[in-house]
Amino acid sequence: MVAGRDLCTDVDVAYRSLDLEKDIVGGQLSDHHHQDIELISDRSSHTQLDVKTGSIIPKVSFEDGKAQFLPTIRSGSCSEIGERAYMEDEHICMDDLSEYLGPTFEGPTPTAFYGVFDGHGGADAAVYVRDNLLQLVVGDADFLQILKKDVDFSSLAEKVVRNAFLAADLALANHCDVDKFSGTTVLTALIMGRSLLVANAGDCRAVLCRRGRAVEMSRDHKPISFSERKRIEDLGGFVTHDGYLNGDLSVSRALGDWDTKRPKGSLGPLSAEPEFRKALLSEEDEFLIIGCDGIWDVMESEFAVSIVRRELMLHNNPEQCSKELVLEASRHGSLDNLTVVVVCFSTDPPPVIDGLN
């Protein structure tokens, strides 16, 4: 049973891609030109790392004489083995990327990076991606260009993160210490100033809380979804009646799994291509939840948002919120490893909103 299925959202979401299912976001679709959440389609047609800071980042900056909202970043995470015999999840929480990049960093404030990696076939791939993906992002020749104010953040950041996903996937094929049967789903969130970019390959999920409502910032890549099934079949693969790719994998996108993929450089049914969504954060954006499928198998996005919101109003502690989400997933019968990250955009707890359950 999935908790919270009877809840709904009323947010508007604008799309650049026209060929994706309308049910990939739990909200009403809109063609308004002023929307600030957008899906950026992927290019395919057919142990924790923690860096936190105690410094408070100002909420406003002044550009051209106008006050601009800036999020104050703080996060918490929880990762438990659950009912599994072994742990295959990994994650990254980096509230202040400047601490990772060193004193010469001159990027926007705040700059943060988060990731959840849900491994399968052993933990090798998830551990490798956790340890190397961020370096592939910041080591890209175009990364420094993202930091410039006059550069289109979303298009260049999308290119950099995509390159990092594909480079990590290829590295898994070449790394002698990583089992070729090991793979991992990957979801990352990059925050620079007000800009949020979520990249996803697999069935981890990111959910933004906007004024108390859930906005899904990723789409679960399952073989049974219409567009994924079509892509798989167009590339010579098949989906079994119980929803498995080529009878083997329950996801249609992942890094690694080189026993399943075609030779390097060839398109195949199992893809490492990430799908992107971006948002321009405002005062209405309260927090972001990033979790593995062990959470979402038993919990609707709206229900998870309601739990985190309730907990923040009680104690205003994102770490405790993440623990409560894991406990709630266990209570609802999740049989998987459980990993979740909660990222808050303000030092204050969420406000009371009339009419919000």
UniProtKB/TrEMBL annotation:
Cellular-component GO terms for this entry: cytoplasm; nucleus
A GO MF term: metal ion binding
UniProt cross-references to SMART domains, sorted A to Z: PP2Cc (SM00332)
SUPFAM superfamilies reported in the protein's UniProt record: PP2C-like
Catalysed conversion reaction: O-phospho-L-seryl-[protein] + H2O = L-seryl-[protein] + phosphate; O-phospho-L-threonyl-[protein] + H2O = L-threonyl-[protein] + phosphate
Keyword Magnesium among UniProt keywords: yes
Record's keyword terms, sorted: Hydrolase, Magnesium, Manganese, Metal-binding, Protein phosphatase
Cofactor(s) annotated in UniProt: Mn(2+); Mg(2+)
Top-level enzyme category: hydrolase
PPM-type phosphatase domain residues: 74-345
Domain of life, source organism: Eukaryota
EC number of this enzyme: 3.1.3.16
Xref: CDD domains: PP2Cc (cd00143)
Membership in a protein family: Belongs to the PP2C family.
Protein name stated in the entry: protein-serine/threonine phosphatase
UniProt organism field: Araucaria cunninghamii
